[in-house]
Structures are given as C-alpha cells and as structure tokens.
C-alpha cells in the first residue's frame, strides 16, 4: 500500500517536473501509455525491458533481505553477459541443448562469483559495500570492453562488440515467444525470469534457508547468537543476487543480440535498485515493480523523440523520485535511537 | 644527459598532474568529512560533484565569469544537499538508499536542464579558456584542509559536529539540536562536493561532460574512510588516489617488456587502489560511533 502511494507520489512529482519543463502532463501520460501498450510489438519491447529489470531487481532485493545493499548489479550483469557470450565464442562447436545451457550456467556462475567478491570484502574485511560494488562496476566495464574490443572482436564490424555466436546457441531456433509479439525482442528469458522470481519468493518466505537469510537481515546479532553462520548467509545472498543479474546474458546475448555489445545496458543494474526498493525487498513484488519501471523506461525513450525538452534520462528522474517517495516515510515515526 | 632531462620532466609533470587531479578529490572528501563526522553517511557525493560540475559550467557560460560559476556550484550543490538533509535528518530516511536516489535523480535532471539551457543532452558548450581560474582553486583546496583541521580540533562548532557524530545524546543534553548541527554539516558538505565537481568542469576542463565525475565521489568517500575521517590523513589518501589517477593518464599506451598494457586496465588503476585501500590491506579504520544511525 505504502509502495503504491510512494510510487504515485513519485510519478506526480515527475509530472510536475515535466510541467515546469513546458510539457503538458496529460500529453506525457498519453505518450507513456501509447509507447508501452500501443501495439503487440511495443508491448513485447516493454516486456523485453522488464526482463533485465526484474533480474537486476532480484540482485538488489535478495541481498537487501540479508541486510546488505547491492548496487553492483550493473557489474555482475556485465560479467555474466560476457561469460555467456564467451562460451559461444570459445566453443562454437557445442551441440544444441548443451550449448545454450552451458552458456546460461556460465552467466549465472560468473555473475554470482563477481557479487561474492564484494560480499566477502564487506563481511570479512568490513569494507564499505557501496563503494566496493561501484568500483567493481567500473572494473567489470573495463574487463568486458577489453575482451570485446581487443580479444574477441567482431571481424565483420567496427562496433565494439564480440564475435557473433553460432545459431546453435541462440534461443530463436526454438523460442516461440517473439512471434506472439510481432517478433519483438522479448524472448524465453522473460518467462524464465518470472518463474525464477516466484520460485525465489517461495524459497525466501517458506524455506529454512530463506528464513535464515531474513533473520540475518532483521537482526544479525540475534541470528549469530542462535547459531546461524551470518557471514556465509550474507555472502550466499549476494551471490544468488549476482547470479540473477548474470542471467541477463540469456536475455541479451542468447535471446536478442547474439553477441556481447559494449554499452548495451542503459544502466539496468541501477534501475534494479528502484525495482527492489519499490517492492520494498519483497521478491514477488519485484514483478509489478519491474513491469512499471519497464513501462517508464520504454516511455522515456519515446518522450525523448516526441517532446521538446524531455530526454531519455527522464526515466532516471522518475526512478530517483520513486525511491525517495518510498523511503521518505519508512522511519519518520520510529523512536530516535540515540537519545 | 638528455635522458636525465627527460626523466625530471616526467617526474615534474607527474607531480603537477597529481596535484591537479587531487584537488577535486580534496573538496569532495572534505564535503564527505563534514557530513560523516556529524553522523550522516554520504554516498551522494558523486551526485553533488556532478551537479557542481554542471552548475559551474552552466553559470560560467551564462554569466561569462568563472567566479560566478564557481560560486553557483557551491550554492546549487548546497541546496541539493539541504534537500538530502530534509530526507535523512528530518524524515530520518535510510541514508544510503536516499544517497543513491539522489545520485540517480541528479544524473537524470542534468540532461533535462542542459537540454533546456543549451539544447544539448551531452556536454555543455566550452567555456572561453581565458576565463578559467588559474591557481587559486588549488590553493583553496589545500587551505580548506587546514581550515577543516583547525575547525574540528579548535572551534566550538567543530566540537558540536564531532558530538553529533559520536555522542548525539550528549549534544542534546547540552541543550543543542542534533538535527540542526547535521543540517548545517550537510549543507556545507554538499557545497564543498560541488566545488569538487566545479574543479573538474571549469578548472581542469572547460565544459561539463556527462558522467565526468567518473566515480570520484565514491573514491573521495574511500579516501575519507582510508584517512580515518580526519582532514590531514584524508589529504594524504586523496594525494595517493590523485597519483593513481595521474599515473593512469600517463601510462596509457605504455609498454611493459614490449607488451602494451591494455588501456582499459590502466584506467582501472584508481578503482583497484580504492578496493585495496578499503579491503583493509592498508590498515583498519574506525568510523564515527553514531554514523548511519538515525
């Protein structure tokens, strides 16, 4: 309920901003709706954006339940995508089901491992996880661009991208989902991500493991005293989150581009923060929240073209305002700790 | 003989560019120092730097004076930080999440302002090079470190600031408002971080370009932690990160044993150093006792 209110407040504020930029709020809303739902193809594109937003949202939400703030989703996603692409570049001869299965597994593994580095440094060495994950985002961007430009460049193009993966790796050979949306880039990953979210939701809410993670997040000291290995649980939660971010490779590399393109991400990793916080860390709620942010992201791209002053970065304004509206009223009635 | 000459030119050049690249970090980490010593975690330094960089370039262009740009950067970033204070101090919202929201919000607002002011979503138009301030911003940065040191150790206000971060209850018992101290600390800190950004856009460069802070707000935060939240050691940490940044620029295209080092890895030097510093491989650091508690 609070999230819905917060979200409405954020949207209203953003429309006020748009109004001061000289755009009619109704016109803006019309473009948003038209852009997201105008045709099956447009809706398919919106759902194509929803997929990485959902996955990077999970990358923030799962560690959040364990009491950590993961803003390294961007780097974990880049490393995972590159791992997925490299399986196809290095072993092009892998036969069909094994090819994409191994590529996906590599994405999950590398994304998770990259996240585990930050969590390890936080938990065992007391490093500030926000600064560490930001630095690792820069380093991941450097590693992936080096690999794409200098080690495995696409011989047929001047663009910064890797070689193309063989057909045996691509989902389109058997994936019927794009045809439902007039061949929009949405693909099987969309469905996988939705089921993964529901599965992780039940693990988090109904299993002993999920309970231990939540206990760690709510009161680490109490959790440790009752015999939980909180350090390990926090690292694990971070790694599971990173693996979700790594799964974006399935959507981007196997489902859409067929290669790793440098700069493919409009900072999905940071949008995941808004997704997770709007869902207030509840995993199932990442579904509507990623859906909403996908609409806003798709809409902002069209607003850039259709209006005079609004740029594609307008979705960042919306994300920022939505996060602020959600966190603003979380604590204001809690007793003050320090007196 | 010529080899010796080239060597000393290299070292003097490296020294000068270290000093230049340290300056934005000094302003930003001093900004962080004031806010964090008052007990508020500030991960929004990056955003305030970016805002300062943009407002300095924009106001400098419009007024035709870099001094106006410099002052505007302080005022605009301080105002933004005042809004940050409203959320974190008055509403007691989660400081880290609010800080990240400010980073995202500012990154979205700047292109909007840029488009309506200069019809550009990328960089601002270039400032006339003759307008750029010469040496005084560097001097100001080093003077600010000494000033901050004296303020924290000698001034009444410095004592209040430290009390707000360490023992807020004692400050309340002395009849002072913790909220007000933090509010002033945040406004001042935001303005200083804005100067860090202004250094990038109108002192080192001549225009604002997108994401020109390049993580320096977070590196400044790391310098602050590495400098144990004290001005003089923080200056040392800033110099170290500034050196890494200067080396990074100089080593691009360099070769080791005949093999060129990939430029992407050279550019990572400051980021790697930050991780090493924070991972405690260079000594442990204790934050203000009440940091981050609302």
Give a brief rundown of this model.
The complex is a heterodimer of chains A (339) and B (294). With 339 residues, chain A is mainly alpha-helical. Chain A has helices at residues 2-20, 25-37, 40-65, 73-90, 96-125, 129-151, 177-180, 188-206, 208-218, 220-225, 230-246, 248-257, 268-278, 286-306, 314-328.
How is this structure best described in words?
The complex is a heterodimer of chains A (339) and B (294). By secondary structure, chain A is mainly alpha-helical. Chain A has a domain at 53-289. Chain A has helices spanning 2-20, 25-37, 40-65, 73-90, 96-125, 129-151, 177-180, 188-206, 208-218, 220-225, 230-246, 248-257, 268-278, 286-306, 314-328. In chain A, helix 1 crosses helix 15. The longest helix of chain A has 30 residues, at 96-125. Chain A is globular, with a radius of gyration of 20 Å. The mean pLDDT of chain A is 90. Chain B is mainly α. Chain B has a single domain (15-278), classed as ABC transporter involved in vitamin B12 uptake, BtuC (Orthogonal Bundle). Chain B is built from twelve helices and two strands; from the N terminus they run ααααααααααββαα. Chain B has a two-stranded antiparallel sheet. In chain B, helix 9 packs parallel to helix 12. Chain B is globular and about 65 Å long. The model of chain B has no long low-confidence stretch (mean pLDDT 89). Chains A and B meet through helix 6, helix 13 and helix 15 of A and helix 4, helix 7, helix 9, helix 11 and helix 12 of B.
Number of helix segments of chain A? Answer: 15
Mean of residue pLDDT of chain A? 90
Q: Please give the alpha-carbon distance between the first and last residues of chain B.
A: 63 Å
How much helix, percentage-wise, in residues of chain A?
Answer: over 70%
The helix-strand sequence of chain B is HHHHHHHHHHEEHH
Structural class of chain A: mainly alpha
Structure summary, number of beta strands of chain A: 0
Features:
heterodimer; A: 339 residues; B: 294 residues; mainly alpha; ABC transporter involved in vitamin B12 uptake, BtuC; two-stranded antiparallel sheet; 12 helices; 1% strand; globular
